[in-house]
Amino acid sequence: MATHVLTFIRDIYELPFPELIFRAQAAHRRHHDPAGIQLCTLQSIKTGRCPEDCKYCPQSARYETQLSAEPLMDAESILARAQAARAGGASRFCMGAAWREVRDGPQFESVLAAVQGVAALGLEVCCTLGMLTGSQAVRLKEAGCTVYNHNLDTSRDFYPKIITTRTYADRLATLAEVREAGLQVCSGGILGMGESVDDRLNLLRELASLDPQPDSVPINALIPVAGTPLAQQAPVDPFEFVRIIATARILMPRAMVRLSAGRTMMSDECQALCFLAGANSIFLGPKLLTTPNPERTADMSLLTRLGLHPLAARESKEVCPPVAAVNS
Length: 328
Ligand code: SAM
Ligand code: DTB
Ligand code: SF4
Fold this sequence. Notes:
Blueprint: H1 2-13, H2 17-31, E1 36-46, H3 75-87, E2 92-97, H4 106-120, E3 124-128, H5 134-143, E4 147-149, H6 159-162, H7 168-180, E5 184-186, E6 189-191, H8 197-209, E7 216-221, H9 238-251, E8 256-259, H10 268-276, E9 281-283, H11 296-306, E10 309-311, H12 323-327
Parallel strand pairs: 1-2, 1-9, 1-10, 2-3, 3-4, 4-5, 6-7, 7-8, 8-9
Helix pairs in contact: 1-8, 2-9, 3-4, 5-7, 8-9, 9-10
Bound molecules: S-adenosylmethionine, 6-(5-methyl-2-OXO-imidazolidin-4-yl)-hexanoic acid and iron/sulfur cluster.
């Protein structure tokens, strides 16, 4: 079954470029405004000293990076950042913590207070705090969180070469708890860690087989950070990157496909191709969690040059069937 589905996915990925983009556009237009781009802002609310060993991550305590670690921000400071993000045109505010997992206690209570405050500003709230239990997911939902980001990152086979401190099954279990609590699922991965094209396609297969499919799918290009084991990785070929975006769009037509980390390494033309291929969301603002992102004014000018407009917070709560159903 898995091999059969992978062949089906590879056949899409390998289509002649114009055919691939045409099909991605057709899928995109069936479910989305083709000129709308969702603008999200990221805020690192607890930075660095993470016990996990994710080989790509500047925040892992195991690698000597130039990062300055910061304890958990208080709810008030988070709210000030959220207000600034809203003033800057963001419709979604995503809070990230360098935690292996959420632990019950005063720190989680403080995050819940921040979630409540950000939701009250009318922003869509997303959190990415590591693994979490069912009851923690429910509490986030009750506090006003809409979305939880937890990436599969890569294929099941390649995963152990990148992370050894928690398993693929752990990640899937967290995603199941998130879904069960009624939160939207945001899950994607990173390209450019030394994985094969089949690993990338297998990542898409895993994501598209979730039932229901993720509501949003961030596709990150590895930002090679000095001091991490992946510091010397070569960038992904831009056309291979665009092909993955298009394939993700075809396999998960209702999802928001997020052109995430790595845009500072991409030309405007490459980003425009990603939008043509069905990407419809970006992170706005000069910083992701700890690494640089294009300046807001540069992004706004790119959107204007392409005639694209920011999307309001998403209304739709459509349920997305898994790829096996799409394939049958
Ligand atoms: N600690 C939580 C976790 O791992 O789920 C949340 C924060 S973590 C930084 C969120 C995601 O950022 C990771 O899953 C990974 O996909 C992405 N990421 C981290 N470092 C990156 C890098 N150098 N380049 C691209 N993406 C990266
Ligand atoms: C995701 O897939 N990409 C964002 C968001 N989810 C949390 C994070 C990218 C982080 C890039 C490295 C950094 O800035 O530390
Ligand atoms: Fe920690 Fe998340 Fe970075 Fe992994 S990706 S080291 S869990 S902050």
